[in-house]
Amino acid sequence: WEDVLRNEAAVQEAARVAVDAALLAGVLMRTEGEPNASDVVNYAPFTLLPSAVPSALFEQAYAVQQDFNLLVDAISQNKEFLERTLASIIKVDDFTARLFRIYVQVLEEGLAQSVFLGINRSDYMFDCGVDGTPALKQIEINTIAASFGGLTSRTAAVHGQVLKVLGKSKEASRLLPNNPSKGLALGIVKAWELYGSPSAVVMFLVEEVQRNIFDQRCVENELWNRNIRVIRRRFRDVFEKGSLDDARRLYMDGQEVAVVYYREGYVPKNYDQQNWEARLLLERSRAVKCPDIATQLAGTKKVQQELSQPGTLEKLLPGRAEAVARIRATFAGLYSLDMGEEGDKIAAMAIADPDRFVLKPQREGGGNNLYGEELRQVLEKIRDSPERTSYILMDKIKPQPAMNYLLRAHSPLQVSECISELGIFGVYVRQGKEMVMNKAAGHLLRTKAIEHADGGVAAGVAVLDTPYLV
Ligand code: ADP
Ligand code: MG
Prior knowledge:
Helix content: 25-40%
Distance between the termini: 12 Å
Number of helices: 18
CATH topology of the largest domain: Rossmann fold
Bound molecules: adenosine-5'-diphosphate, magnesium ion
Largest sheet: 7 strands, antiparallel
Shape: globular
Structural class: alpha+beta
CATH class of the largest domain: Alpha Beta
Number of strands: 21
CATH superfamily of the largest domain: Glutathione synthase, substrate-binding domain superfamily, eukaryotic
CATH architecture of the largest domain: 3-Layer(aba) Sandwich
Number of domains: 2
Mean pLDDT: 97
Radius of gyration: 22 Å
């Protein structure tokens, strides 16, 4: 968009159109000042222009999504693998240990749940090789509360209008339609049907602070449109009013719950003692949890690192050599910091060259990773302590930056050097041992200024975007 970027008057005009179009289309967030009321809302941050995405890599990301769905599902059913992979982590990381305890406890009691629903998002960046060719590299897979499938279904229309205002209607017509919220909802519908109780509701397990409610409402509305009742409750509500009957059916305020869709519960600060008890109650129930606790554990960074070890994928997906090859092609270098000679070598390698790596704890939600000088300092401090095993080390992906404007309420309009992260939503439903749905459900492109190493849209760093395939 070089011609556009140079024309300041055109950019100013397009930005005004863009913001109003976003508000009209429902690209909305509640404000920081009033996070739990819809009296005052604003637009969710987004780019002025769609960002270029290599079409071959875009297709590759879609093509591997069903494989990732199968993989996550296989891990969630493999107790031996989860136990062995997380053994070192649960000794040093209290949060993962508590999740793991619930996992073991519900398995020992015997699962009441027989229908399983996975909604995940596999995130990638386009790593720029020495010869300049970009390669698709996975950042992580989110198996709980993967967000922005709703709001992003509305950004293509906004960007289409912006391009038209800028005299690029041909380019506008090339933007792809995208509706993850519908795909996610169809997974929930399937799980609800298989649960088999027509009067039962779907419960969205939501945060105390609900700034991103409109994103969730997009999925909710798809369910209401299909005559499925949706209720929104917090852990606190479950603690106070949730109960199980003899068959471990879950009831909230007297209503049977068929599906629990978590948009909360992935960071330690979501839990106090009562919330842990509420989580245990939900996990023990017959309701379809999206995700169940095993699938949440399958999304930990330690599992991601273990998957990159030679032979691991083959064991988890026996007889699926092509799926294994497609998955492996997206892996960046991942390294264990477990105690021992190998871990010592890895720690020394990272300390010597910190800019080549990212140091990741077992946390979700952005803003937790360590880079550069900070990585070096932290690793130096813990290099001889078991604390280091709570982290994994990953090669840093280095995408080619591009210029764009990031539109954010109350911020001046200025051009930034940006990089993008592509996410593909996956949805699957399993009944007993049989996979009854396995799909890619749409995509999310997020873009941020290069000066931020970390952080997503909710963390206030990245903004919503639309891919423009090149
Ligand atoms: P979280 O679970 O907190 O979202 P991520 O692994 O997605 O953790 O990392 C957060 C952000 O940090 C990503 O959105 C990306 O911008 C950046 N990041 C993570 N891993 C890498 C990497 N290997 N190379 C470059 N940037 C990375
Ligand atoms: Mg992430």
